[in-house]
């Protein structure tokens, strides 16, 4: 990234913080805490053991949900991209999961699974998996059939076909899907925890809202943004670079 683009990025961040500060002053700190008060509350919370305990609970739930959604969506996408019957069989379920509002899924899952980690992981997985599935399936369908014929002629094993043809072909769309999955995963996780748990990041957000503690509420929101930033820059960044190298090599 060039210096000019970095300056534009910095200008956008400054504008966002300035708009936040002016809006907080206009609306009052009972409704919207200022950036400085939010940062102060965040630092104070970070010194407490309870803060890290709730954060760890949410991190574990997010890890399980992202892992299951990625693995299942990837496998189903690979199969559906090659077998039209499987694609059509899964299409109603795909449409349902991508169309139904998340809050309805949360309420139904609370009835089926009760409140707790199982419910949160189930909801997050169900709502994230279609994004991985669709991008994988579309990527497989875009593969030139001559590569498949070549692999059959040379009697490639299933593993060789997956690693030499399918994964390099779907790596761009899969990388984009993983970004969406991680960002949306945090939002869905927090929503599920707000409505149906007694611990975790979302539970603390609900507590801060109930206590009308605006600074603490936005401090927890800031924490969720930091989780997304960490996932995108420190986890997905290296994964995307590896996928790009893989595709270039191919």
Detailed description of the structure:
The protein is mainly alpha-helical and 250 residues long. It has two domains: 1-32; 33-249, MetI-like (MetI-like fold). The chain has ten helices and no strands. Helix 6 (117-141) runs antiparallel to helix 8. The model has no long low-confidence stretch (mean pLDDT 84).
Architecture of the largest domain in CATH? Answer: Orthogonal Bundle
Number of domains as seen in the coordinates: 2
Termini gap: 25 Å
Low-confidence spans: pLDDT under 50, at least 5 residues? none
Q: If you consult CATH, what is the topology of the largest domain?
A: MetI-like fold
User: What top-tier CATH class of the largest domain fits best?
Assistant: Mainly Alpha
- Can you identify the CATH superfamily of the largest domain? MetI-like
Helical coverage, percent range: over 70%
| Number of contiguous helices | 10
Shape: globular
**Overall pLDDT confidence:** 84
Features:
250 residues; 2 domains; 10 helices; mainly alpha; MetI-like fold
Can you give me a brief rundown of this structure?
By secondary structure, the protein is mostly helical. It is built from ten helices and no strands. The two termini are 25 Å apart.
What layout of secondary structure does this protein have?
Elements: H1 3-27, H2 35-46, H3 49-82, H4 84-99, H5 102-113, H6 117-141, H7 145-153, H8 158-196, H9 201-210, H10 214-249
């Amino acid at each position: 990234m060039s210096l000019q683009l970095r300056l534009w990025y910095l200008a956008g961040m400054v504008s966002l913080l300035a708009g936040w500060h002016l809006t907080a002053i206009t609306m009052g700190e009972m409704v919207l805490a200022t950036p400085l008060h939010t940062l102060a509350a965040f630092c104070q919370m970070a010194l407490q053991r309870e803060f890290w305990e709730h954060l760890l609970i949410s991190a574990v739930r997010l890890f399980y949900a992202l892992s299951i959604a990625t693995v299942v969506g990837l496998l189903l996408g690979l199969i559906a991209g090659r077998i039209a019957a499987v694609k059509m069989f899964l299409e109603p379920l795909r449409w349902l999961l991508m169309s139904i509002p998340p809050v309805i899924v949360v309420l139904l899952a609370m009835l089926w699974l009760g409140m707790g980690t199982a419910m949160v992981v189930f909801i997050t997985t169900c709502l994230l998996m279609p994004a991985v599935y669709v991008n994988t399936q579309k990527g497989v369908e875009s593969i030139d059939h001559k590569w498949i014929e070549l692999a059959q002629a040379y009697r490639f094993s299933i593993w060789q076909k997956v690693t030499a043809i399918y994964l390099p072909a779907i790596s761009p769309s899969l990388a984009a899907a993983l970004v969406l999955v991680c960002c949306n995963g945090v939002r869905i996780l927090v929503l599920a925890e707000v409505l149906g748990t007694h611990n975790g990041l979302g539970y603390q957000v609900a507590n801060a809202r109930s206590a009308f503690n605006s600074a603490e509420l936005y401090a927890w929101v800031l924490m969720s943004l930091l989780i997304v930033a960490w996932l995108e820059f420190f986890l997905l960044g290296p994964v995307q670079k590896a996928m790009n190298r893989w595709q270039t090599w191919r």
